[in-house]
Every structure is written in C-alpha cells, then in structure tokens.
Write a structure and sequence with these properties.
80 residues, mainly alpha
Length: 80
C-alpha cells in the first residue's frame, strides 16, 4: 500500500513540475517576443528621429554631426 501511495504522490509531483515548467516556457516566449518588439520600436523611433531632424532642422544635424568621431571596429570612445 505504501508503494502505491508513494508512486501516486511522485506522479502528482512530477505532473505539477511539468505544468509549471510549461507555463514558464510559454511566459518566457511571450517576454522574448515583447523584448524584440520593444527593440523594433526603439529602432523605428531612432530612424524617425533622424528623418525628422534631417527634414525639419538640417542645419542642426550638420552642426551636431561634424563633432562626432567615426568609430571603427573594437574602438571605444569614453565620455567625460
């Protein structure tokens, strides 16, 4: 009788673990999708800001970009 009870408790425990892991996997997929969507929105925002300043205030863009240094691969610019 003890074997039957222990096996049934173990089975219920394993089913609960599998259920929790599947829910975690689904939520992780949702979070990953939302993060990629947020990154896409940020890229779109940056693109639209650049387009806005090029169209509306081109003199300001030219003035600000001439101070920028083009960084090459593995090069880091530290700001003070």
């Amino acid at each position: 009788m003890a074997y039957v009870v222990s096996i049934s408790v173990f089975t219920v425990f394993i089913v609960k673990i599998i259920d929790v892991r599947s829910k975690c996997t689904k939520e992780k997929a949702v979070i990953s999708r939302l993060i990629s969507e947020i990154k896409g929105f940020k890229d779109e925002n940056n693109r639209l800001l650049v387009k806005f300043y090029k169209d509306v205030r081109p003199k300001l863009v030219d003035k600000k970009t001439k101070d920028l240094k083009i960084l090459h691969e593995n090069e880091v610019k530290y700001l003070k």
